[in-house]
Amino acid sequence: MKTPRRPSMSMHDKQARERLGDALFRYMQGQPADALADEPDANQQALRRYRLLPRILQGNTTISTQTALLSQCWSAPLGVGAFAGDRLFHEEGLLPIARACRRLQLPLVISEETVTPLEQIGAAYERCWLQLRAAGDVGRIKALIDRAAQAGMQHIVLTVLAPVHPVAGLQPGGFSVGDALKQRGWRTIGGSEPGVAALPAFPVWRWQQISEVAAHCAARRLPLWLKGILHAEDAAQAAQHGVSGIIVSNIGLRQSARWATPVDQLADLQAATPLPLLLDGGVRCGSDAVVARCLGATLSLSVRPVVSALCAGGESAVFDLLSGWINEVSAISHWCGVSEMAALNRTFISEVDNGCIG
């Protein structure tokens, strides 16, 4: 068996590293403290285990990449996930990504640890989702949901895994976004003082709090997604507590390299819940989103390649990256012999016995 190797850096990655410096770039890449030296990204490797099976004699003449999700329609089974401290990566923060997603009609998830004001992002793109941490006082979450509704946000994401390590010095890459924002005097959407909101790092909530938040979202007609679900028993309970969907995620392996990958858990979660599943983690190209769709994820979220593009070339680079992925989804799906995304399923994929990137 071949040894999996770490893929070489893309042009955007190289440009981002030059602009950000090693420390912030390593944070963006998210390698946790317990990862081995040069250990490849397990989320990315999990997706690359699968190969697609073309069906070129089906006679289909058209292809639509449009993707229906909870009564809304997106242009492709793709979206951009949340990341913290946006202005550390670009002087305009998240706004160039918001404008690119508006042009392409793709969902954009915004972290509560974003520096750019929520209302400003909502004015740039009215179809964004706000991601909040399931920690601390529920009243704080409700107030942010109210603010999100007023700003025109379309969905609420509640992450039940903290995106950072609770021990100082063990954050991804050893870099603290909170300290960097505090030094600059920048506040975030979810904070009242410079830096990020001081919240418990470990998940201390129970299903009672989830039900309370779900009811608050429902009263404002905002679907609620739980992010960070990997265990089938948690997925089975989600629908009983008012949750609209699940984002299958290990938070980019930022806490530990030992978490299961979302790709490997999709089948068990799909069997455990009727809720729609989104994949978060390891998506690096359009064909990854096609594989994820075949495995049961209605839509895939990507972060790191988009942030690298943002650093390298702003809105135009982000737009080119995402539009190229949409074109790739369209071409590959057409070669698979389908005319719509809903027709993709496990019969179109084959699993190989190693995780090498070729």
UniProtKB/TrEMBL annotation:
Pfam families, A to Z: FMN_dh
Gene Ontology molecular function, alphabetical: FMN binding; oxidoreductase activity
InterPro entries from the UniProt entry: Aldolase_TIM, Alpha-hydoxy_acid_DH_FMN, FMN-dep_DH, FMN_HAD
Binding site for glyoxylate: 27, 254
Keyword tags: Flavoprotein, FMN, Oxidoreductase
Keyword Nucleotide-binding attached: no
Top-level taxon: Bacteria
Keyword Oxidoreductase: yes
Family indicated by similarity: Belongs to the FMN-dependent alpha-hydroxy acid dehydrogenase family.
Necessary cofactors: FMN
FMN hydroxy acid dehydrogenase domain mapped to chain residues: 1-354
Binding site for FMN: 82-84, 111, 131, 159, 227, 249, 280-284
PROSITE patterns (alphabetical): FMN_HYDROXY_ACID_DH_2
Name used for this protein in its record: Hydroxyacid dehydrogenase
